[in-house]
Specification:
This protein is of the alpha+beta class. It contains 2 helices and 4 strands. Strands 2-3-1-4 form a 4-stranded antiparallel sheet, with helices on one face. A hairpin with a 5-residue loop joins β2 and β3. The radius of gyration is 11 Å and the shape is globular.
Length: about 70
């Protein structure tokens, strides 16, 4: 399964990309994560559908320093 997600809110400058990268590696999910110029974080997740859905649920909360508005 492959999903492209965009996370909006206070997600830049708070370690969101690193947090998401570590969570994806733990779940054996491939892909990439980057900051967009618009202030969002974008990620391409490739792997098991159940694990990707779980990771997306994690992104809805994010690390404690972030404030996610929308995934």
């Amino acid at each position: 399964m492959k999903k492209n997600i965009v996370i909006t809110g206070k997600v830049q400058g708070v370690g969101f990309r690193h947090w998401l990268y570590k969570a994806a590696v733990q779940k054996k999910i491939n892909g990439w994560v980057k900051n967009n110029i618009s202030g969002e974080v974008e990620a391409l997740l490739i792997g098991n559908a159940v694990k990707i859905d779980y990771l997306i649920k994690l992104c809805e909360k994010g690390p404690s320093s972030s404030k996610v508005i929308k995934v």
